[in-house]
Design brief:
Layout lengths: L1 E9 L7 H20 L3 E5 L6 E8 L2 H8 L9 E8 L14
Antiparallel strand pairs: 1-3, 1-4, 2-3
Length: 100
């Protein structure tokens, strides 16, 4: 599987009822857990004081990432994404068992 650094910013349409926002956010938490369990969502961070997320995601390729991973997020229709494919750096001090 390849690895991707993904920045996600959610922009809720102004006319969206709060109940719809709450439902989608609850469903988003469930789906994120499912994607983590299947190895697609590796890590997820929120920069201090900001409402965007930065995550390390895995997929076979960018098409799968968009269609079968990110595209299945309940908030996806409201998200703006920046995707960067990444690979291990030769000087990475992290685990040696990289899967990218």
């Amino acid at each position: 599987m390849k690895e991707f650094l993904v920045e996600l910013t959610t922009v809720v349409p102004e006319d969206t009822p709060q109940a719809e926002v709450d439902r989608r956010r609850a469903d988003e938490a469930v789906r994120a857990g499912e994607l983590a369990a299947t190895g697609h969502l590796v890590r997820l961070w929120r920069p201090v004081g900001e409402l965007r997320s930065i995550g390390l995601w895995r997929a076979a390729d960018e098409q799968e990432l968009y269609e079968k991973v990110l595209g299945t997020l309940p908030l996806w229709p409201w998200m703006v994404s920046v995707v960067t494919a990444v690979q291990p750096h030769p000087n990475d001090p992290g685990p040696a068992d990289h899967t990218a």
